[in-house]
Amino acid sequence: MGVLLPMLVLGPLGGAVLLALLPARIRPWLTVGLAAALGAAVVVLVGVVAVGGVVHYQVAGWAPPLGIELLVDPFSAAMLAMTAGVSLPVLIYATGTELVRGHEAFWPLVMMLWSGLNAVYVTADLFNAYVALELMGLSAVALVILGGSSAWRAGLRYLFIAVLGSLLYLLGVALIYGQTGTLDMVGAGEVLTSGTYAFTALVMITAGMALKTALFPMHTWLPAAHAAAPSAVSPLLSALVIKASLYLLIRIWFTVFGGAAPTGLPTALGVLGCAAVVWGNVVALRQDRLKAVVSYSTVAQVGYFFLLFAYLAPALDAPAGSTQEQVALAAWTGVLVLVFSHALAKAAMFMAAGVLAIAHRSDNLNDQVGAVNRMPGTVLAFAAAGVVLAGLPPTMGFMGKWQLLQASMVGGQWWWLAVLLGGGLLTLGYTARVVRATFDRPGHAGRDQPRVVPVRMPAMSLMLTVTAVVLGFLTLPVAQFLEPVLPAGALP
Amino acid sequence: MTHGDVFGLLAAGLVVLAVVRLLTAGDLVRRVIALNIASGGVLMVLVLVAAHSEPPDSVLHALALTGIVITVSVTGLALVLIRRIESPEHGEQPHDNEVPPDADHDDGPHDEHIQGAHGGGP
Amino acid sequence: MSEAAGVFDVVMVLGLLAVAAVALFHPRRLTAAAMFLVFGVLLAVVWAWLGAPDVAIAEAVLGAGVTGVLVMNAVTGNPMTAEETDRGRGRVTVRGYMLVAGILAAAVAVGLIGVLWDLAPATGTGTLVDRNVADSGVSHPVTAVLLNFRNYDTLLEIAVLAAAAVGALALRPPGTRMPQLRHDSGPLGAMVRLVVPVLALVLGWLLVAGSTRPGGAFQAGALLAGALLMLYLAGIGPTRRLQRWTGPVLLLGLAVFLALAAGTAAIGGGWLVLDADWAGPVIVALEAVLMISIGTTLAVLLMTMDQINSAARGLPGVPAWYSAERSGAGAALQDGENDAR
Fold first, then answer.
1. How far apart are CA C259 and CA B106, in angstroms?
2. Burial environment of residue A332 by CB neighbours within 10 A (0 to 12, 13 to 18, 19 or more)
3. In a mutagenesis test of the C interface, which of A17, A22, A57, A144 is the best target, namely the one with the most C β-carbons within 10 Å?
4. Could you tell me which of A442, A407, A239 has the C-alpha nearest to residue A329?
5. Which residues of B touch C58 (CB under 8 A)?
């Protein structure tokens, strides 16, 4: 079964090479076909992991620390599934019109991006993760700049930030190797001892990954890049790309460092996370452009993800069955469910925003008047996605927040509660503002006939939103799937 | 001071100077230069760790080589992009994005930071 | 490593810091670019001094060589900005960021120095490499790591280069063609005609030498890029007519590497598993293909920069002297540059 793992990375790369050489006419549906095949492979893998636990593979036949090992546990499998689950609808959406792609190079680049993402999720080697991050990052930048002249500067800034983050990560890895003599994540975790040395490495890596995930206050590059990117690229960026650096950070913290961290760092991350939630939501409320609203929403949601470190690190050595362990479990499940629900909802939001922007030939909120009558499905998709992000029942977003609320209450950290609840309110605020902009306004002069948009585009958006809502009912099986990976427990 | 310490200081110095410059320079090509120098500093840490073994650890040398190639790739894309940004094209390319082009190059949505001529921050 | 620092060490360190400082802080772009070239060369010397010959050669040809050429082209190829001094951003922003950055940087520096001071030698993976080199198909440890033990990393690295190429090529303005400079019959052409064949020999040797000593696909690829660029600049060779082949040649390396992976997975011992019996020749063959891709990709990146310039020429509002770009290169460009394909 391990033989499948390299396929998840090399398959899309092969697809990318093909796509880059074939004429533009064939590319859209060939890509969708490849995506479907890849999705099927991921489903199989998730099934195997659900039954058997962990899947390994040693590439080139050499065992670590000499060679590179690939490892998929339930956490990685879930991330792989999330990536496939969002990419396929977005690719179908992208077949709708060239306007959301920017250039025919979209197709090979998207496959390279997917390859990079998968490469991050399957690797168990610290340096391999660096190369995978660079593949993912460079593809993402290339996709952003397809958006035309308005996207060039934002894309370049994104490039500088992404590479800076990777360099800081590499610095940390060099230090880890210096102490442990191995690049294998599991192997290093066994040998690494806490101390100033190890913590310096951890701080560097955390800084680098926080930069790449756009944690406040190092977030300004994100709204610029995600808003300027073509409309089929923005969903991939917000929903998928920033999750990869987050994933890697979690792996480093808990597999390699075992949750040990310099005092104050987990709390600092938590504080910055809260600041991100407040800041991102407030600024989103003040934006006049659709995609800017959605981009700042991402900045806010990233804040929730970083609460994980604040909850989890103190609770790791707790004895089984204690309240501290319950807090850890609830926080872990909650944040991961939020990560997945955000992926679905944010992709849906960006896709809906893209449809609205195409139809009205403008991104500006003032130009969306009357949309709710002409394209109710799209507006509904946007609104429902906002509800998921705000965490209203019975959506998946609610289940995630509920877990975090429980963790806060049991753990006695009341200030996180305020942030969680307040953030949800603000999210509803900017969602409502956007929806209100789509209503008819008396006295508003009739616009030109809006552009017709292929129906599969809003359909994909609606589908993802509905999934995010419906999956709220399935949170229990998802939580059970993820539980063995709780860092205090059975990571191999 | 030993051999290794001196170069360790150099590595730290290069990384620090270059990262500061990366974040604060206005000129785009300067930022590319800064990126390359920062990368050189990080690779120096790798090579210094490698030099602790006798003979030097070849795995780290291989990693450094990989790092150089990746940095060249990034630099290449960045410079082509900069050329496109700085090129005085009056016949503007047909705008591929569905959003109509703004009157000036705007760096994105409004943020509360005080924006300099080229936008602020990382 | 624990011997005392000598005069050479101190001189190198101070020199490198000084050169880097100029490259980073001097207001004039051209000076910064030139100093960056010097930095690359000095850095290569440092790598050699620290016992990393592979990295030294790679830095010299890729870091100083190719990157230096690209940066120089960026600064001089567009006369509108060559003299532009570094304007910096709004004053308050810059001072604020410099303060924060300065504090953080100082913290990093202190941390780094403290850490490197206490660095304890650990038995790294290097010893494992030396033990297994014999089974890898080559005798040079670094090549063994790159093309056998950790070849998955190298594959992804080639993919990174390909992604950069695809991204850069997508930036070409529609309706332009690959630039073709006029044939130079003067000293430049003569020099190129002398140097390129020698260069070809050297890079061929460097490619094959990688199996037994420092060298290999990346270094040879950079030299190939240099040779191609020399031919391009002297106007020798049918650059434009080869435009159709750009895509395939650029992706050839990645494609062959992937094919090898698929082959070993299907009928061999597993993904990218190279048996000791046939690993040697396969590695050299793979490196040859990679070299071609790397060399052409790097050369094409520079030519793309020129191609972007060509779109601006002749447009209303662009000053006449813009056409006379680089020592006659502008005037030397062939007619019909901007014809739609």
1. 44
2. buried
3. A17
4. A407
5. 65, 68-69
Q: What separation, in Å, do the N-terminal and C-terminal C-alpha atoms of chain A show?
A: 17
Q: A69 has which bridge partners?
A: A58
Q: Model's pTM, two decimal places?
A: 0.91
Name the residue facing B22 among A148, A164, A170 (closest C-beta): A164
How far is it between the farthest Cα atoms of chain A? 72
- Please tell me whether residue B2 adopts helix, strand or coil conformation: strand
Would you state the structure tokens that stand for residue B59, as one six-digit string? 């795995």
For residue B17, pLDDT beyond 50 = yes
**Is the pLDDT confidence value at C298 over 80?**
yes
B23 contacts in chain A (CB < 8 Å):
164
Q: What is the pLDDT of residues A119-154, one digit of tens each?
A: 999 999 999 999 999 999 999 999 999 998 899 999
CA-based nearest residue to A96, from A357, A383, A295, A368: A357
User: Could you tell me which chain A residue has the CA closest to the CA of B95?
Assistant: A148
ipTM score: 0.93
DSSP string, A157-182: HHHHHHHHHHHHHHHHHHHHHHHHS-
- Taking residue A453's Cβ as centre, other Cβ atoms within 10 Å add up to 20
Chain C: list its partners (3+ Cβ pairs within 8 Å): A, B
User: Would you call A119 an interface residue with chain C, using a CB distance cutoff of 8 Å?
Assistant: yes
User: Do B22 and B38 contact (CB within 8 A), yes or no?
Assistant: yes
Separation CA A99–CA C6 (nearest Å): 62
Reduced to 3 states (helix: H, G, I; strand: E, B; else coil), residue C165 is helix
Question: In chain A, whose CA is at the least distance from the CA of C253?
Answer: A17
B69-91: pLDDT as tens digits = 999 999 999 999 999 988 866 43
C170 touches chain B (CB under 8 A): no
User: What percent of chain C is helix, strand and coil (3-state, nearest 5)?
Assistant: 70, 0, 30
